[in-house]
Amino acid sequence: MNTATRRRESFPKRLRRSLMSQYLLLVLSAILLIPFSFPLVGLMIGLPNWWADQADKDNPYHDGARLERIWHEEAAKLGGAAPETIDSELRRLHTVYSKAGMFWVDGSGNTRLQLPEQQLLPRHWNADYTVQFMKEAANGTIFTIVAFIGTSRQEGFLVFQMDRERMISLRAGANHSDGAIVSAVMLLVLALYLLMSLLFFNRIRTRLVRLQSAMTSPAAGGIPNPVAVDRTDEIGQLELAFNSMIEQLEAGRLREAEEEQLRRNLIAKLSHDLRTPLTTIRGHAFSLVQENLSEKGVQSLRLIDRKVEYVGQLIDNLLSYTLLSSGKYPYEPKSIDVVRMARIQFAGWYPAFEQADFVIDLDLPESAVYWHVDPRWLERVLDNYLQNVLRHARSGRYIAFHIVTDGGGQIRIADRGPGMAGQSEDKGAGIGLSIASLMLEDMQLRSEVRSSEAGTIILIRPDDSI
Q1: Which residues contact 153 (CB under 8 A, 6 or more apart)?
Q2: What mean pLDDT, rounded, does the chain reach?
Q3: What's the CA gap between 465 and 254, in Å, rounded?
Q4: What is the pLDDT of residue 86?
Q5: What is the pLDDT of residue 334?
Q6: pLDDT of 383-404, one tens digit each?
Q7: Which phi and psi (to 5°) does residue 408 adopt?
Q8: 264-269 own/partner pairs: CB under 8 Å, 24+ apart
Q9: Which residue positions in the chain have pLDDT lower than 50?
Q10: Distance between CA 36 and CA 225 in Å, rounded?
């Protein structure tokens, strides 16, 4: 989807596809979830309290104030009653509150009926013991109610005792857990929001990692594969732009391949078409040499012949470079004796260097040096280098051609010309040297060139000997 199409879309549509709007919706959902969680909190709090209330109805011991009120009322009813009546009423109360301890003391301070029997109680209560009992009952772990019989203190008193741990109300315990329930619900809401955020950003990360993988893992040809676009948000727009870029790269590569093929065909055709007129020119020049010409005419014909030969070599080099760069130049490697091949090769060049008054320094060993290369390619490389010396280093009048056997063998060609940076009459575009470099690279040979104003040294050796 291009920019113009996006501009024509309505704002709500763009907003729905936006990652920012999706995340804001996520945040808003989390905020709205808080008030909607209040009924859940109320239900979680109300159910335990209702259950506790129902359970407390069956627990006669949970309300200490109620027990105290009932006990005082029962003691007041027994005013003026006979001891047997008091014993009987106390037994009835014990059937209701069977887990409690009960006893009564008469007006004379004598301990009467005990339910159940308590060994620690004295048979007769004096003032000191009574004060000590009341003090321990007020601060101890036993809930104690003391109620005077009747309306005066002369008829004695009833005592109710209960372990405080058995009097804990379930509703009170539920009230203590209300804060924990609220905290748990809030933590649940927060955890749900964090989980949704994690899923949201993990989805974004997965898509970005997929796009990164497509960018860094190109397919055949060096161009990445397109990615699948399943959403139209910001990342989806980035994926669309990435796919569009891939289409443009692919189209450019196809155009480049077509142009390269056209260029190669053009060079091949031009090379073929130029050979015929050059051959004709050389033939006519040779015929003119046989005529009776002046010295100046002979020199001109020689110059024409030399230039025609040079143009023919340029055409050959151009065609060879085109074939090499396209991988269509025949290559047939085999094991050859480099020393023998170089001796034969330089023998063909020897007269040319001798005629140009070069000092020839030839040093070829008697032992053989074997390389696994294409002999025609290596001959072409040596021809290009020797021709370069003859043509551009003529001012130095020196050529050195050495082969050493150490380190897998090495060919050394040296001259004393102006160097590759210097100027010469026949200096060209350097296609011959480019052809030599391509051939050496394909034959797994390495050339090292050291050039200065004092001359040029070229070293050729196998890559594994570096």
Answers
A1: none
A2: 78
A3: 40
A4: 87
A5: 92
A6: 888 888 888 888 889 999 999 9
A7: 85, 0
A8: 264/322, 264/326, 267/318, 267/319, 267/322, 268/319, 268/322
A9: 1-7, 11, 170-171, 173-174, 465-466
A10: 48
Query: Would you state the pLDDT for residue 3?
Result: 45
Q: Would you list the DSSP string of 198-227?
A: HHHHHHHHHHHHHHHHHHHS--TTS-PPP-
pLDDT value at residue 400: 94
Q: How many whole angstroms separate alpha carbon 208 and alpha carbon 216?
A: 12
Q: What is the pLDDT of residue 4?
A: 44
DSSP secondary-structure letter at 252? H
d(CA 121, CA 129): 10
Give Cα 418 distance to the centre of its chain: 55
Question: What's the pLDDT at 466?
Answer: 43
* Phi, then psi, of 157 in degrees rounded to 5: -150, 155
Residues 6+ away with beta carbon under 8 Å from 67: 60, 61, 97, 143, 145, 160, 162
Asked whether the beta carbons of 44 and 185 are under 8 A apart, the reply is: yes
Sheet containing 455-462, strands listed edge to edge, beginning at the edge strand earlier in sequence: 359-363, 398-404, 410-415, 455-462, 445-452
What is the structure's pLDDT at 415?
Answer: 93
Distance, C-alpha 158 to centroid of its chain = 83
Using N-to-C axis directions, what is the helix angle for 19-57 and 178-216, rounded to 10°? 150
pLDDT at 1: 46
Q: Give every CB contact of residue 261 below 8 A, 6+ residues apart in sequence.
A: none
Q: Is the previous residue joined to 116 through a cis bond, with omega within 30 degrees of 0?
A: yes
Alpha-helical regions (H) of 223-294: 234-289
Amino acid sitting at position 163: D
Q: What is the pTM of this model?
A: 0.43
pLDDT, position 358:
93
For the chain, which domains are there? 3-55+174-216 (no CATH), 64-168 (3.30.450), 224-329 (1.10.287), 332-465 (3.30.565.10)
Q: What pairing do the DSSP bridges indicate for beta strands 359-363 and 370-373?
A: unpaired
Q: Quote the pLDDT of residue 297.
A: 77
Burial environment of residue 251 by CB neighbours within 10 A (0 to 12, 13 to 18, 19 or more): exposed
